[in-house]
Structure formats: C-alpha cells, structure tokens
Design goal:
about 70% helix, TolC-like, disordered N terminus, two-stranded parallel ribbon, alpha+beta, coiled coil, elongated, Outer membrane efflux proteins (OEP), single chain, about 450 residues
Length: about 450
C-alpha cells in the first residue's frame, strides 16, 4: 500500500513537471520575434531624435510665417471715449464746456521699401526650413544605423551564448568521462576535482553570456520602443564583398550626406541674416493710412465727423550707436565659423570613410581565416577527447583544445558582426537610404 502511494506521488509530481515545462514552452513560443525590417520600421515611428527633428521643421515653418508678416499689410482698429471740460468752448454757440468725445478708427501700415531687409529675412526663413528638413534626414539615418547595429549586437550575443553553452556541454562530458576513468582507476581525484572546477568556470561564462543577451535586447528596445518581452530572428551571414573604393565613397558622401547639405544651407542662412543686419542703418519707406470717425456727444451736429489721411514716411537711422556695425561683425563671424565647421565635417567624413573601408577589409581577412580555424579546432577537440578516452592524451591537452575551439568560435562570430557593422557604417557614410539598403541586403 505504501509503495502504491509512493509511486502515485511520483506520478503526480511528474505530471506537474510536464505541465510546467509545457507552460514554459508555450510562454516562450508566445514571445514575438522581430526581424531587422520590423525593427527598422518601429524605429521610424518611435525614435525620439526623429520626433524632435520633426518638431524642428514645424518651428521653422512658424518662423517663415512670422517673417512673412513683415511683407504683408497690418491692419488695426481702435476706439475711445473721452470726456473733456473746456470753459472756452461755452463761448461757441451750440457747444458746452463739458463734452463727450467718441472716437473710432482703422489704421493701415505697409512696408514699401526696406533696403532688402524683408526679402532677405524671408529667404533666411525659407532656408532655415530647408535646414530643418536636413536635420530630420540626419536624425533618421542615425536612428536606422543605430537600430541595425544593435540588432546585430543581439545576434552576436546569441552566438556567444551558444558558444558558452557548447563549452559547458563539453566540460560536462569531460567531467563524466573523468569520473568514469576515476572509477576504473586510471584517473585521480585531482583530475575529477579539476574537471568540476572547469565546469563551474564555464557555467559562470554562460551566465555572463545570457546576461549579455538581455542587455543587448534592452539596448535594442531603447531604439524601437518595444514593450514586453521579444526576441529577434536573423543570422550573422552577409555578403563577403570588397569595400567601396575610398575616393568613390568620399565623393558620394560629400554629395549625399544630409550633414553636408545642412552646413551649406546654414552658410546661406547666415549670409541672408548679414543682409538683414546691414539694412539696420539704411533708409526705409513705409505707407500709413488712417480712417477716423469722431463724434461729440452733446454737440448739436447732425452727422459724426469723419476724416482720413494717408502718407509715405521716410525714416533714416543714420546713426544708431554703431549697433549695425556690431551686428555685421557677428554675422561675418557666424559665416566664418560655419565654413570652418563644414571643413571639419569634410575631414571627419574622410576619416570615417577610411576607417570603414579598412574595417571591411580586415573583417574579410579574419572571416576567411577563422572559418578554417573553427573547422580545424573542432577536429582537434574530437581527436583530443578520443585520445583522452584511450588514455594517450592528458587532461591539459583536452582543455587546450577546448580553449582553442571556444576562442575560434568567438572570433568568428565577432568577425561576422564586425563585417556587417562596417558595411552598415559604409552605407551610412555614403548617404544611402538605410531603410531600403538594409532591407534589400545592402
């Protein structure tokens, strides 16, 4: 009876265990898996840098409307009630000493000639809007580049986790073989203890690799705004192609990079603002017209008074305390600083292009070398384990073969990632549309 009860309890726990593993499998299967294309599309709708740059475009549009108002007529209405007392008015027949005066009017003001100030301000506002669009393109390209790099960082961390798991499995097999040999009397307790320590160390590395996967996923989450658990699907395979020639890459970058277009536009903006500043001490002509209705409350007039006036007014601030001169000095300095910034950007593009080309060439060389090295290391480990079981190889030789295989697999995975990232960097430097280039395989 007790034996039946014991087996019944074991069966119950077994059923709970199977149900738990099934539930865990269901939970893992329900985690969405994102491709590179999915991540790039999510970035376009989530990137804070892109949203901020889009608001910059709206601000530029508002600035253009604001500056355009200087070229349009301005209309204003005004009214008033005045009570006045003038004893001398009582001497005039029909008037009294105390009088209520009602006034209402409309005023029109229009700039006629501003020495190019209004037109230059309009041009500067239009160029500023164009510069904001270039900033948006820059933010978009940066967000897509970072998302793609972090996507492949997740894939790399997955590969390194597999390497660590494989190492743990190898260490466990080695421990089991050492225990078997110890039972046969051909291995010492020291060998068993050393195998246990090696397995524990490999387990620690596996834990670090698993944590690296979680960290890489969190970094990708920062770019795509994905809530909840998710995983990625893809591999580190890529086209092994030589890099673009350096001069061709730089030429395309100087022609297509939004940073270059932004720098050119900013120079034009500052040139227009210099023209605006230069008109500060120049003559200008404005049109002003007024239409006025006026009525005396206790006057014996049949109709209220109506009057109007219109005129052209010339103003010439021939001395403004050298304010205009100071503004021109600032404008010249801004233009010069922006030109220096453009030259710095060109130097940075040359450096980035040279670095990307060198990294691609380096990754290609490492890939070709490490693919053969991994195959050789796997064969070497098989030979070492077989020799250890036969008693012709030492534990040190087996561990050395395991270390070589782990190092070769790790280097191969990193080389694959470096090759892909360097190619992404090259496309970004060239000013390519990363969304199209990465979805079509670059």
């Amino acid at each position: 009876m007790r034996r039946c009860l014991f087996y019944g309890v074991l069966l119950l726990f077994g059923l709970f265990g199977v149900a738990g593993r099934y539930a865990a499998g269901e939970e893992k299967a329900s985690v969405p898996s994102l491709t590179l294309s999915d991540c790039l599309q999510m970035t376009l709708s989530y990137s804070r840098d892109m949203l901020s740059a889009r608001e910059g475009i709206r601000q530029s549009e508002g600035l253009y409307i604001q500056e355009r108002s200087a070229a349009l007529p301005r209309l204003s209405a005004h009214s008033g009630l005045l009570r006045a007392r003038d004893p001398s008015m009582a001497l005039v027949p029909g008037l009294e000493a105390e009088t209520d005066i009602y006034q209402a009017g409309v005023t029109l003001k229009q700039a006629v000639f501003t020495w190019g100030q209004v037109s230059a301000a309009l041009d500067a506002a239009a160029l500023d809007r164009e510069a904001s669009e270039q900033r948006f393109r820059q933010a978009r390209a940066w967000a897509l580049r970072e998302t793609a790099i972090r996507f492949y960082d997740v894939l790399l961390s997955r590969e390194l986790e597999k390497v660590a798991s494989g190492t743990v499995a190898q260490k466990r097999r080695h421990l089991e073989e050492t225990i078997r040999r110890n039972e046969l009397g051909v291995a010492t307790d020291y060998d068993v203890l050393a195998a246990r320590v090696a397995l524990a160390n490999a387990g620690a590395e596996q834990t670090r690799a698993e944590n690296a996967v979680r960290l890489a996923l969190d970094r990708l989450r920062y770019m795509i705004g994905k809530s909840g658990d998710f995983d990625v699907s893809g591999d580190l395979s890529s086209k092994v192609e030589p890099p673009m020639p350096l001069e061709s890459l730089v030429e395309r970058a100087l022609a297509a990079r939004p940073e270059m277009a932004y720098a050119d536009t900013q120079i034009h903006v500052f040139e227009k603002l210099k023209k605006v500043a230069s008109a500060g001490d120049k003559p200008r002509i404005d049109l002003e017209a007024n239409l006025l209705w006026q009525s005396y409350g206790n006057a014996r007039f049949d109709d209220p008074g109506e009057s109007w006036n219109a005129g052209l007014y010339l103003s010439f601030p021939f001395f403004d305390g050298m304010k205009t001169r100071g503004s021109l000095i600032q404008a010249d300095s801004r233009i010069a600083a922006m030109r220096i910034e453009k030259e710095r950007l060109i130097d940075a593009i040359y450096l980035e292009a040279r670095d990307a080309v060198n990294r691609i060439a380096e990754a290609i060389d490492i890939l070709s070398a490490m693919q053969a090295a991994v195959e050789q290391a796997e064969k070497l480990l098989e030979m070492a384990e077989a020799g250890y079981r036969a008693g012709v190889k030492t534990r040190l030789e087996v561990e050395d073969a395991q270390l070589n295989l782990t190092s070769a697999r790790t280097s191969l995975a990193r080389a694959k990632r470096e090759s892909i990232v360097a190619r992404i960097q090259m496309l970004w430097i060239a000013g390519e549309d990363l969304l199209t280039a990465l979805q079509t395989g670059g």
